[in-house]
Amino acid sequence: MTSLDYTTLAHHIKLWGHELGFQQVGICDTDLQVEEPRLQAWLAKGYHGQMDYMARHGLLRARPAELLPGTLRVISVRMDYLPQQAGIARQLSDPTLAYISRYALGRDYHKVLRQRLKRLAQRIEQVVGALSARPFVDSAPLLERPLAAKAGLGWEGKHTLVIHQEAGSFFFLGELLVDLPLPVDEPVANQCGSCSACLTSCPTGAIIGPYELDARRCISYLTIEHDGPIPESLRPLMGNRIYGCDDCQLICPWNRQAKASDEADFVPRPALHHASLLSLWQWDETQFLAQTEGSPIRRIGYHKWQRNIAVALGNGPYSDAVWTALHTKLETASPLVQEHIHWALAQLQRNTERQDNKTARVIRCVQKGMPDHA
């Protein structure tokens, strides 16, 4: 094919991508050498935590052509996921409700994007004939955010997520590796400027500097990737977040531009949306598996799900119903969950005693006719 043919093909690829439900399609080459020192430094500091696969694959993550020999270009796509009537403020402000990251309320995005990317590859193959192509959606050692930025889908924000000027950051990324010399797109300028909102708003201080994330402190990592007990010092900071965290995105000024998705696969499941912590805690494993079928949540398993909810219940207000529900599962829970139940009960006890002391102090001050300045 001539260079003009490839230019036309690239144009059509973007049109087909939009038809398949992607909000944006960009194209870049496979050269990520500039990212290799940064990746090595991040791994050397242990910021990946228990995500051993990141260290195991090493610099392969920055070398797409080694994943699929013969690859010349990466077709990078984004798909918006913010649900209609997301209810974020209500969920976070009510400690009796469970906050689940907005991306996880619907169908597993891995499946949605991968199937669309396969169909995009089929469309391309119908035009070019033989095609070497492979889709990726968080399914291989690949630096998808630098690739997306290089393909012009946005810039990497200080929270390490990709930001688009007109769409914010509430979107998924996917890649299609191809052996075609397509023309590449230009990156866009970083527009974070002097803003540091995401750094100062992170509940656990996981964003330790601009463009540097210590995953070991990140609530998304703690509730999803981390196995074993959650560090006690971080538990009170998690609030009612039981799966993922959106705080660094919620505070980002660019997300004022974020558009709600009309993708049917991302419509929130009623059982997860606006759910109370107590109702989710009462699920047995069979209910958990049924309610999370086809959801990204299912992969953390029932015990980590209970672990996360136990922490959130401990961070919430005391009630007889919560106290009884925690005690009821104490004997049958796994050792991991038992540890977090004991912590939650102790936390509720401390909060109750603190509230009782404050109430008693107010009563004494009122009786003495003095204002309470405490």
From TrEMBL:
<keyword id="KW-0819">tRNA processing</keyword>
<feature type="binding site">
    <location>
        <position position="218"/>
    </location>
    <ligand>
        <name>[4Fe-4S] cluster 2</name>
    </ligand>
</feature>
<keyword id="KW-0408">Iron</keyword>
<comment type="function">
    <text>Catalyzes the conversion of epoxyqueuosine (oQ) to queuosine (Q), which is a hypermodified base found in the wobble positions of tRNA(Asp), tRNA(Asn), tRNA(His) and tRNA(Tyr).</text>
</comment>
<dbReference type="InterPro" id="IPR004453">
    <property type="entry name" value="QueG"/>
</dbReference>
<feature type="binding site">
    <location>
        <begin position="245"/>
        <end position="246"/>
    </location>
    <ligand>
        <name>cob(II)alamin</name>
    </ligand>
</feature>
<comment type="subunit">
    <text>Monomer.</text>
</comment>
<feature type="binding site">
    <location>
        <position position="248"/>
    </location>
    <ligand>
        <name>[4Fe-4S] cluster 2</name>
    </ligand>
</feature>
<feature type="binding site">
    <location>
        <position position="195"/>
    </location>
    <ligand>
        <name>[4Fe-4S] cluster 1</name>
    </ligand>
</feature>
<keyword id="KW-0560">Oxidoreductase</keyword>
<keyword id="KW-0479">Metal-binding</keyword>
<feature type="binding site">
    <location>
        <position position="61"/>
    </location>
    <ligand>
        <name>cob(II)alamin</name>
    </ligand>
</feature>
<keyword id="KW-0411">Iron-sulfur</keyword>
<feature type="binding site">
    <location>
        <position position="202"/>
    </location>
    <ligand>
        <name>[4Fe-4S] cluster 2</name>
    </ligand>
</feature>
<dbReference type="InterPro" id="IPR017896">
    <property type="entry name" value="4Fe4S_Fe-S-bd"/>
</dbReference>
<feature type="binding site">
    <location>
        <position position="252"/>
    </location>
    <ligand>
        <name>[4Fe-4S] cluster 1</name>
    </ligand>
</feature>
<feature type="active site" description="Proton donor">
    <location>
        <position position="138"/>
    </location>
</feature>
<protein>
    <recommendedName>
        <fullName>Epoxyqueuosine reductase</fullName>
        <ecNumber>1.17.99.6</ecNumber>
    </recommendedName>
</protein>
<feature type="binding site">
    <location>
        <position position="198"/>
    </location>
    <ligand>
        <name>[4Fe-4S] cluster 1</name>
    </ligand>
</feature>
<keyword id="KW-0846">Cobalamin</keyword>
<feature type="binding site">
    <location>
        <position position="192"/>
    </location>
    <ligand>
        <name>[4Fe-4S] cluster 1</name>
    </ligand>
</feature>
<feature type="binding site">
    <location>
        <position position="220"/>
    </location>
    <ligand>
        <name>cob(II)alamin</name>
    </ligand>
</feature>
<dbReference type="Pfam" id="PF13484">
    <property type="entry name" value="Fer4_16"/>
</dbReference>
<dbReference type="InterPro" id="IPR017900">
    <property type="entry name" value="4Fe4S_Fe_S_CS"/>
</dbReference>
<feature type="binding site">
    <location>
        <position position="162"/>
    </location>
    <ligand>
        <name>cob(II)alamin</name>
    </ligand>
</feature>
<keyword id="KW-0170">Cobalt</keyword>
<feature type="binding site">
    <location>
        <position position="138"/>
    </location>
    <ligand>
        <name>cob(II)alamin</name>
    </ligand>
</feature>
<dbReference type="Pfam" id="PF08331">
    <property type="entry name" value="QueG_DUF1730"/>
</dbReference>
<comment type="similarity">
    <text>Belongs to the QueG family.</text>
</comment>
<comment type="pathway">
    <text>tRNA modification; tRNA-queuosine biosynthesis.</text>
</comment>
<feature type="binding site">
    <location>
        <position position="245"/>
    </location>
    <ligand>
        <name>[4Fe-4S] cluster 2</name>
    </ligand>
</feature>
<keyword id="KW-0671">Queuosine biosynthesis</keyword>
<keyword id="KW-0004">4Fe-4S</keyword>
<feature type="domain" description="4Fe-4S ferredoxin-type">
    <location>
        <begin position="180"/>
        <end position="212"/>
    </location>
</feature>
<dbReference type="InterPro" id="IPR013542">
    <property type="entry name" value="QueG_DUF1730"/>
</dbReference>
<feature type="binding site">
    <location>
        <position position="173"/>
    </location>
    <ligand>
        <name>cob(II)alamin</name>
    </ligand>
</feature>
<keyword id="KW-0963">Cytoplasm</keyword>
